[in-house]
Design brief:
There is one protein chain. By secondary structure, the protein is mainly alpha-helical. The protein has a single domain (7-132), classed as Orthogonal Bundle (Arc Repressor Mutant, subunit A). It has helices at residues 7-11, 20-43, 47-59, 64-70, 75-87, 109-130, 135-157; strands at residues 62-63, 91-95, 103-107. It has a three-stranded antiparallel sheet. Helix 2 (20-43) crosses helix 6 (109-130) and helix 4 crosses helix 5. The longest helix has 24 residues, at 20-43. It is globular and about 55 Å long.
């Protein structure tokens, strides 16, 4: 493995190890696999379902389309996740009184219990990941992370990557 990159290497990448998005992916992968094992192995839900449960615990009852928007999911992925959670009896749903086409969802009592059992474990993992990092460094990291989120949003809205993603045709078309 190559040396960890510095700012100059990130600003002029010459290898995979020097790509910012690759470094972020590696950092996330190293810790997120623990969350995956917790939610899938210990609680029988997927990471996407955990995100939905966490968001519903945070905001309460909401329309299914608003939940999808808050989680940055397309409607199909959101609908599948909600259907699975409904089948597992972790969410309750009902037709919106004002707009019959819209469904409102909320955690069921068993969904609330799952959240109450799982959230402290994941929160502990987050604390453990930050162990040994000074508070001032964490603050700088959070400022940088926020700037990266904003800049990513700007670049997305500018259409920097004009190609359309198609999960079904990955690897079958080359331009």
């Amino acid at each position: 493995m190559q040396a960890f990159p510095n700012a100059a290497a990130l600003r002029a990448p010459s290898s995979l190890e020097n790509l910012l998005l690759y470094r972020l992916w590696r950092a996330a992968r190293e810790s997120s696999c623990m969350v995956t094992r917790m939610v899938e192995g210990g609680f029988g839900i997927t990471r996407r379902e955990w995100g939905m449960i966490g968001m519903l615990a945070q905001i309460g009852e909401v329309t299914s389309s608003e939940l999808a928007e808050r989680l940055h999911l397309d409607r199909v992925s959101s609908s599948r996740g909600l259907q699975s959670l409904f089948e597992k009896k972790l969410v309750e749903r009902q037709q919106d009184a004002e707009d019959g086409r819209e469904v409102r969802v909320r955690l069921s009592p068993s969904g609330q219990q799952l959240f109450a059992d799982l959230f402290p474990r994941i929160a502990r993992l987050n604390v453990d990941l930050l162990d040994g990092i000074d508070a001032a460094d964490i603050d700088v990291f959070l400022q940088c992370l926020r700037r990266l989120e904003l800049r990513g949003g700007e670049l997305n809205s500018q259409g920097v990557a004009s190609e359309k993603a198609s999960r079904r045709s990955v690897g079958t078309r080359h331009q």
